[in-house]
Structures are given as C-alpha cells and as structure tokens.
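ok so i was messing around last nite and threw this chain in just to see what happens. nothing serious, just curious
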Amino acid sequence: MVRFENVGMRYGLGPEILRDVSFTLEPGSFHLLTGPSGAGKTSLLKLIYLAERPSRGAIWMFDREIATTPREELPALRRRIGVVFQDFRLLDHLTVFENVALPRRVMNELESSYRAEVEELLSWVGLGNRLNAKPATLSGGEKQRVAIARAVVAKPELLLADEPTGNVDPDIGGRIMRLFIELNKLGTSVLIATHDQRIMERVPAQRLFRLAEGRLTTANAADAVLAEAKRA
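result:
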C-alpha cells in the first residue's frame, strides 16, 4: 500500500528533516509512529498523504510511483486516505454534521445514503448533540473528535492520525482507539503518530516506527513499547 525507499525531505534550502527513510505499510496493517518533538513525524505523514514531495528517494502509493504520477491524478489517490490533522482543518462555515459528511459529499453520494451513519459516528465520539454547531463554538477536544469522525466516515483504505488523543479525556480516547481498531479489522491500514503511552500499550499494532534525528527505525511493537516506556 505504501513503500518508501531511501527518502529524504527538506524544506527549501534548509537541512534535511528526513534522511534515508525506508519502510512498507501492508494492506490491513496497524502501525505506531513515535519519536521526540521535532524528529519529523508530521513531515513523514505529509509525504504519505501527498501534501509534500520528497527531495530524494522514491515513494509508491497504491502501486503508483508518485514521482511519475501526473499531478491531476493525485487527488484521486488522496481520497483513498483518511487523515486526522493536529490542527483539525475544519471548515468554519460548515456545521459539525457537514464537516464530517464532506468526504461522502465529495464522492457524490446522496445525503440520504449517509446521514444515519454520520449521526451514529458523531454519537460514538460524544458529539450527537452538536450536529448543527459551527467549529467556532467547539472546544479543542470537540474539534479533534469532529476531525477524527471526518477522517473515518468514508472507510478509507489508509488512515493516518497525528496525535489523535492529544486533546480528549481517557474515556473518549478509548472510544477513538476502539473505532480505529474496528476500522482496521474491516481492512483499513492504520498509522498513528503518538506520544501517548496508553495507546502504545493497548492497541494491536504489529510494528512501531521510531523517528530520531530524521532517521527511522522499526521494531516489533510489543518489544518497542517496553523500550519506549523505559525511555520515558
């Protein structure tokens, strides 16, 4: 589903943020990404959801080599990816319901085909009573839950989440992780960037990726979680 080979990335003429990054995400896999602040985790996610291009190396997405894929074909690839951004990226002029339903609207589905599903999803993340609220009236934790619901509503083939439980209480955080786990059971590949030790201990990840000084290492998730706990 995703393959990086010796990928490097820099912004402008600055130093490389990522160096010689190589890894593979298989269909239906579940991975965690950790590392200190400034290590390049968000930059790596940007490369995966095609918001940035590498300065060197090769990236394959859904069996397409990105460097040779015409720019006009990239939006179709992005629609196969659900992303939970740290800065939420909600549309202020849309209601909570409309923000979450947006991926389904983009797919030209009728509202009658997804309305019940969107409402159920918002109830699951504790926002069943905020369907008609605008983002400006929401707390940071509520905005994060809207962003998560929007990322999963279309059952993407690949889900990327950047610190998805950073602004929510433990109960809601547990619900969110169960949602990700169920989505993974349905075939979605999941990659979560997190510092949350509770997530690292509880989710059924197969591998843990760790970024440090721009370089990526991988390990069996169970062994790596123990090492991260000792490091913390």
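not much to say yet. Residues 1-80+191-232 form a domain with the Rossmann fold fold (CATH 3.40.50.300).
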